[in-house]
């Protein structure tokens, strides 16, 4: 057997569709204010590594160089499913550290079942351990318990410096195609990279889907790590989280169903629905000048 580490297949075997399509839509909730709406269809980049998950994972899979990839997520994490799918496609072992020790004794939900079917080894930890997972001592203990001490570790949501630099291309693809580029945010990694890729006259608008107001400092910290300092013009619209992650209301659900019918777009509910809803509110408030174009990044697709 060769002592050379085996060269992993590069993310090119993941065959992305880049640049992702830009689609104009006629929507009177924007049109009546003289605002154009375009959809940046990042959900069409890849059938299984969807949207920003492809952009964030591809550079990490390259950096892993065939090692086991270990990452973190909740029971319905889009990032865990994308990582598991990448593992299957590339022939890489993957380990998913899942929040919630009690889940170990229950039948897997559809999202985790998909991860397992893709060959991901699931390792459940209690919520306190999960909360402290970035502390070196806790992380080392988790890696030991998961029997994955040599693994390449990708943080929760996939947002590290490699991922942020990977998302810069989302911005460059949108250069001079819109005045405002809006997207829903979890960790802020996609926003941090996107903003860095835009041209000087453009601005990025992030809509956090989690409550807590921490995203501004997180995004600044991610840009510092990825680029050495702030990049691009970006701001946050913090009023559209609907109470927090995975929280919804009948109004938001009705909005999403209606948007799907109007534009034949499958609307992902955890992130994309909140973004699109927020944009219609902002348009009605006059937040976008007449004659301007808003690009909404469609970062994902509903599961299953
Ligand atoms: C993961 C995800 C996001 C959030 O991306 P961050 O880089 O963590 O802010 C947004 N939309 C969808 C559909 C996602 O799956």
TrEMBL record:
<dbReference type="InterPro" id="IPR027278">
    <property type="entry name" value="ACCD_DCysDesulf"/>
</dbReference>
<keyword id="KW-0663">Pyridoxal phosphate</keyword>
<protein>
    <submittedName>
        <fullName>1-aminocyclopropane-1-carboxylate deaminase/D-cysteine desulfhydrase</fullName>
    </submittedName>
</protein>
<dbReference type="InterPro" id="IPR001926">
    <property type="entry name" value="TrpB-like_PALP"/>
</dbReference>
<dbReference type="InterPro" id="IPR036052">
    <property type="entry name" value="TrpB-like_PALP_sf"/>
</dbReference>
<feature type="domain" description="Tryptophan synthase beta chain-like PALP">
    <location>
        <begin position="31"/>
        <end position="300"/>
    </location>
</feature>
<comment type="similarity">
    <text>Belongs to the ACC deaminase/D-cysteine desulfhydrase family.</text>
</comment>
<dbReference type="Pfam" id="PF00291">
    <property type="entry name" value="PALP"/>
</dbReference>
């Amino acid at each position: 057997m060769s002592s050379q580490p085996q060269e992993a297949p590069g993310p090119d075997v993941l065959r992305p569709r880049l640049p992702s399509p830009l689609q104009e839509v006629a929507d009177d909730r924007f049109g009546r204010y003289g605002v154009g709406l375009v959809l940046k269809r990042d959900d069409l980049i890849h059938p299984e590594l969807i949207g920003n998950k492809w952009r964030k994972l591809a550079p990490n899979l390259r950096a892993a160089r065939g090692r086991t990839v270990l990452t973190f997520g909740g029971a319905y994490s889009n990032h865990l499913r994308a990582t598991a799918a990448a593992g299957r496609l590339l022939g890489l072992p993957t380990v998913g550290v899942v929040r919630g020790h009690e889940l170990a004794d229950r039948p897997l939900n559809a999202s985790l079942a998909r991860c397992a079917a893709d060959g991901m080894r699931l390792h459940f930890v209690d919520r306190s351990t999960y909360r402290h997972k970035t502390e070196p001592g806790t992380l080392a203990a988790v890696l030991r318990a998961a029997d994955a001490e040599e693994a390449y570790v990708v943080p929760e949501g996939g947002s590290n410096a490699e991922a942020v630099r990977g998302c810069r291309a989302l911005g460059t693809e949108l250069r001079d195609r819109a005045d405002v580029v809006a997207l829903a945010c979890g960790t802020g990694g996609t926003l941090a990279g996107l903003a860095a890729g835009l041209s000087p006259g453009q601005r990025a608008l992030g809509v956090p889907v989690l409550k807590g107001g921490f995203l501004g400092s997180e995004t600044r910290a991610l840009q510092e790590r990825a680029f050495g300092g702030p990049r691009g013009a970006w701001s946050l619209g913090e009023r559209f989280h609907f109470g927090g992650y995975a929280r919804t209301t009948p109004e938001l659900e009705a909005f999403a169903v209606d948007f799907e019918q109007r534009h034949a777009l499958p609307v992902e509910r955890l992130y994309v629905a909140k973004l699109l809803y927020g944009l219609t509110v902002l348009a009605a408030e006059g937040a976008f000048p007449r004659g301007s174009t808003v690009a909404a990044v469609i970062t994902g697709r509903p599961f299953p």
